Amino acid sequence: MKLSLGPLLYYWSREDTFAFYEAAAGWPVDAVYLGETVCSRRHTLRLPDWFSLAEKLAAAGKAVVLSSQALIESESDLKQLRKIARNGRFLVEANDFGAVRLLAEAGVPFVAGPTLNAYNPDTLALLHELGAVRWVPPVEMPARMLAAMPVPAGMATELFAYGRLPLAFSARCFTARHYNLQKDDCQFKCLDHPDGLTLRTREGAAFLTLNGIQTQSARIYSLAHRLDELRAAGVTWLRLSPQSQRMAQVVAVFHELITGTLAPAEAPARLARLMPGEPCDGYWLGQAGLDWQPERAAALQS
Amino acid sequence: MSLPAIPKPLARVVGILPAFPVSFAFSAAGNLAAWPTLRELDWSEVRGRRFCVRVRDLGLAFYFSVGPRGFVPEVAQSADVTFTATAEDFARLALRLEDPDTLFFNRRLLIEGDTDLGLRVKNMLDGVELETLLRRLPLGLGRVLLSLRERALQPA
Amino acid sequence: MPALLELICPAGSLPALKAAVDGGADGVYLGFKNNTNARNFSGLNFDDAAIAAGVDYAHGKGRKVLLALNTYPQPGEVARWQQAVDRAAELKLDAVILADPGLMAYAVKRHPDLRLHLSVQGSATSYEAINFYRERFNIQRAVLPRVLSLAQVETVASNTEVELELFGFGGLCVMVEGRCLLSSYATGDSPNTCGVCSPAHAVRWQQTPKGMESRLNGVLIDRYADDEKAGYPTLCKGRFEVQGETYYALEEPTSLNTLALLPEMARLGIAAIKIEGRQRSPAYVAQVTGVWRAAIDAVKRDAEAYRVEPAWHSQLDRVSEGSMHTLGAYYRPWK
User: Fold this and answer.
1) pLDDT of residue B10
2) Residue C224's domain spans which residues?
């Protein structure tokens, strides 16, 4: 089992972003995903900055993957996408079929990201044929479905295993909307919310997280205690999604876990102290994503 | 665009009727009028579920289930799903003059209890051809209702 | 001559299909009674007999019938989607509306003459994505997610030979279709896998001393005072609290209505306008189809002289959620 550090979904200052990845160079993760996947207005790091970070992390022994934007709207989004697809050096994560087209055209291997909606063997085989060497299932995919997927030889399965779940993308910026600002004049309010803005029900229950045009879960998806099930379902990479505080410790817990020095059953207690919210694991069980039933075994066969 | 109003004294009288006979009468009328058409629907998912139709302005509530031979009045005054609206709105819904979602958005139609059951029945009834149903009504009622509908469809 | 502003209307039942055809729809779209389509609601949609009758009725009047197969097949059940494609070919439907590339590959191989449309659930927002489906599966038309501004639509239109279909009216998804998992996060059922959003089995309305509450699998989506209009608890249209402020944090319960944009859509050569609402009743379909037929005829007659008649708006607002409408993302400041 390998660990990857997923793309940074939030918008941080340039200094904080560089500091985060400088630290990450020393964490026991095998791969690091870099780049802006959420909003094209975010620019504390430009593409050349991401490339230079990529070089540094590669020099530190990390397998670097450049992640592409999930929602492509404008011609300038496409320009950026083409530069990433034709970078000629690093693996790319395709998060849209426009990216798949460009990468297949360039004849380079790629990672099929979670928003490509590979829910069945035919689509997965097609992605493999087009050059995908690794795929990330949709985050809502339950254990039962994943275990039933015949994964082509030479293709690895990477699962979103820790972090706030990216649930939806919109043309509208919900952070700007919260401040009564238009998206085109958002004043980069996302910078004030390094782990997003919590949306609560009228009864005060934390429900979702606003992160610009992206909507995330308020709860932290965590499958650490399900390591055996993950292995049985064919998962070979665990994706850990960045949070602004205590990420190093989160990575350390997962590293202990996959190297066998931490029993999976011990993981929830360790992680509880590191999470910026309550945990959930419902998707893996085929239930509502927000459920948390760590004691319940996931069905691996239908 | 309106249907004839229900006279107020009538509303007062029916409001004090005892419950079971009302449900009985409703079911009997339903069986006579609509069941010949509605029987063609697939009611298997709905068998044994209890419905309540509450007519807000008349103070009436009908409790029934759907069996193999039609509507069955229920004695118990409880239901899996309850529809509440005025007599006129129910009539407008039945004649397809009004879209249930529209009434719902405007708080004129209330669905309480098992929402899925409520929407299932709504969707099933939407699948019935109005003309077929009206044609099969006894006593030439269909023609009367059709002409009422035509009249209501005329711009005011 | 290429298609221009075809009116494509929803049908959740045979009476709705007839209402659409009678009201002047150029095409109707519908789905089977299972999770192969994104309106998999109890009691809704077409069984074999109804679809055959519907095709006869529509084709008899020279109108098209399109089949929505726009959910994602899942391991062990792929055959259900493939059989639906076969059935569409047998019935000589005018197109199938697909989201899943694996299913498109099947359709193209088995039924090379079957016309394929890319569903909005395929989340294609750029010409690069649309051209991917064109090159691989020869799709003829793409339905665009409701996230692009008209200027962005124009860029797409001028960089692909694929016909474009835009949403004109109806319930408004504020999220990119096909990439929204809010429903499964709260209830376990998503549009992608189950063909439902905020499914009715998870919905409860309850009158409480604080007002009428709507809940989705126990999560409070909204609470209404007695004089407030209510909404179906679609979870993106609830009222929530963010930093101490309670408001429609994602989207108001409102409908998309693009009547005002029709001349611009005609200029861009938009092939078809889609009306949302297969879950709505025949009465809705009749009312909405009538208004849009009149509007499209007016714009085709003389785009310069075209004006939105106030009566059209009031008729459409009556059947709209929240009785309000918006131009959505087509109008950039909405974002």
Assistant:
1) 54
2) 182-247
Asked if the structure places residue C136 within a domain, the reply is yes
A187-to-A191, A193, A214, B47, B104 alpha-carbon distances in Å: 9, 13, 17, 58, 40
Same domain for C145 and C110: yes
Task: Indicate the number of domains in chain C.
Answer: 2
Q: Where are the alpha helices (DSSP H) in chain A?
A: 14-24, 47-59, 75-85, 97-106, 121-130, 143-147, 174-178, 227-232, 247-258, 267-272, 282-285
Tens digit of pLDDT at every position of chain C (335 positions): 688 999 999 999 999 999 999 999 999 999 999 999 989 888 899 999 999 999 999 999 999 999 999 999 999 999 999 999 999 999 999 999 999 999 999 999 999 999 999 999 999 999 999 999 999 999 999 999 988 889 999 999 999 999 999 999 998 889 999 999 999 999 999 999 999 999 999 998 888 999 989 999 999 999 998 888 777 788 999 999 999 999 999 998 888 999 999 999 999 999 999 999 999 999 999 999 999 999 999 999 999 999 999 999 989 988 887 666 788 777 767 77
What does the alpha-carbon distance between residue A165 and residue A137 come to, in Å, rounded to a whole number? 13
Q: Residue B47: which residues within 8 A CB-CB, separation 6 or more?
A: B65, B66, B67
Q: Which residues of chain B have a CB within 8 Å of the CB of C199?
A: 116
Q: Are B56 and B84 in contact (CB under 8 A)?
A: yes
> What is the DSSP secondary structure assignment for residue A140, as one 8-state letter?
T
* B123 closest CB neighbour out of C43, C205, C322: C43
Chain A contact probe: residue of C120, C128, C214 with most A CBs at under 10 A: C128
**For the CA atoms of B139, B140, B141, B147, what is the dihedral angle to 10 degrees?**
-170
Contact C229 B112 (CB under 8 A): no
Q: What's chain A's average pLDDT?
A: 97
Q: Do residues A65 and A92 make contact, with C-beta atoms less than 8 angstroms apart?
A: yes
Question: Which residues touch B57 (CB under 8 Å, ≥6 apart)?
Answer: B6, B11, B86, B87, B88
Contact C322, B105 (CB under 8 A): yes
Query: Residues C295, C35: contact at Cβ < 8 Å?
Result: no
CB contact under 8 A, C185 and A117: no
What number does CATH give the domain B8-153? 3.30.1050.10
**CA distance linking residue C107 with residue A120, whole number of Å:** 15
